[in-house]
Write a sequence for this structure.
């Protein structure tokens, strides 16, 4: 009965908390960035998995506090003690829930969640043309330091740009050409890495020549390289297998540099002697340092995924005794009780530990896990005290 109640509250709370997270944060931000309702609805299924490592532990704690608070408020815990049974007999369903959701979170973090990160980016950035139209709807203009052009429109009606103004600048930042058009339309030419602007009823002014009025005109605008550059996946975007492969390749590269540095120190370069050995050595050491910093990112990700997953079990150990001692059966009390340690203790410690590990101040195995270690120690102490009382 207790396990079934835990599962029901957990599922309902997870749906509610995930919905609040999406509506209050992601959807509002996406709407402000100019994404239409269709695009927002399309990316929501890809946003949900990335939130699960954070919402599942919180939901587990909430469900545990609420269910055991109800048991205590209804004097069920007191009846169990009066019958001579050990109070820990009612704790095992929550431990089973904690083990189950921790395993589920880790399984999702192994492969599925990293893949959704890449799918989400591909979904948003694959259509460069739609991205530019969205920017024009939001800001009524496109201007970038890497672009030698600027585009300003009065309004966007479907694919039609009303009262468009294009300006081209020289290296000094001076206007060398200006075009005004009653109507314009964009076409992205990815093979030539340019944006073709189809203009109607336009007036052209340019330094030197090409003045006049044209019923139709096509103006090519070069797109900046970073907008079309291939996205380099971050550690969180890689599956567990990809992380392992990249870490192995990184280790091999570091070993090769170590071998080269040893040969330089020994004076054995087998005829391939650089002209400037100190400069060459410095470049090798700088490259090796950058590789070690990247390796620290991989190691931190390796530790963070199981640490976040194990947080579910640690929260269960806290939620049971806290729920019994507070003996509250209402949602508000359970909400305040369970989210205080999350907001003020667990996630700040997890964030600090992750940053320390990425900055190479401490080994990831020491700092990433200390939030779980603290929660586990506190939970075991509270459970031991509950049994004694």
């Amino acid at each position: 009965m207790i396990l079934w109640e835990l599962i029901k509250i957990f599922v309902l709370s997870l749906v509610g908390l995930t919905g609040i997270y999406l509506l209050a944060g992601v959807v509002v931000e996406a709407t402000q960035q100019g994404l239409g309702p269709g695009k927002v609805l399309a990316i929501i299924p890809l946003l949900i998995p990335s939130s699960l490592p954070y919402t599942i532990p919180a939901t587990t704690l909430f469900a545990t506090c609420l269910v055991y608070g109800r048991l205590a408020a209804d004097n069920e815990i007191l009846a169990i003690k009066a019958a001579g049974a050990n109070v820990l007999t009612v704790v095992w369903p929550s431990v089973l829930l904690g083990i189950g959701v921790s395993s589920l979170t880790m399984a999702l973090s192994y492969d599925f969640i990293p893949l959704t990160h890449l799918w989400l980016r591909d979904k948003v950035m694959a259509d460069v043309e739609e991205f530019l139209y969205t920017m024009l709807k939001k800001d009524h203009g496109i201007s970038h330091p890497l672009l030698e052009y600027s585009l300003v429109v009065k309004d966007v009606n479907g694919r039609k740009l009303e009262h468009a103004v294009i300006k081209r600048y020289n290296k000094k930042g001076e206007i060398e050409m200006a075009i005004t058009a009653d109507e314009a339309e964009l076409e992205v030419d990815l093979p030539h890495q340019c944006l073709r602007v189809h203009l109607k009823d336009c007036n052209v002014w340019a330094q030197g020549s090409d003045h006049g009025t044209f019923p139709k005109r096509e103006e090519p605008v070069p797109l900046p390289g970073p907008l079309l550059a291939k996205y380099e996946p971050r550690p969180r975007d890689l599956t567990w297998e990809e992380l392992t492969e990249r870490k192995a390749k990184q280790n091999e590269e570091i070993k090769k540099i170590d071998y080269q540095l040893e040969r330089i120190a020994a004076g054995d370069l087998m005829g391939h002697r650089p002209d400037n050995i100190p400069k060459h050595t410095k470049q090798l050491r700088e490259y090796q340092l950058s590789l070690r910093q990247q390796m620290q990112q991989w190691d931190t990700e390796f530790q963070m995924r199981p640490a976040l997953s194990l947080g579910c079990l640690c929260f269960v150990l806290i939620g049971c005794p806290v729920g019994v001692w507070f003996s509250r059966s209402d949602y508000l009390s359970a909400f305040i009780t369970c989210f205080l340690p999350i907001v003020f203790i667990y996630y700040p410690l997890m964030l600090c530990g992750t940053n320390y590990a990425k900055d190479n101040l401490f080994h990831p195995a020491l700092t990433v896990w200390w939030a779980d270690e603290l929660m586990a120690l506190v939970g075991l102490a509270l459970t031991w005290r509950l049994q004694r009382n």
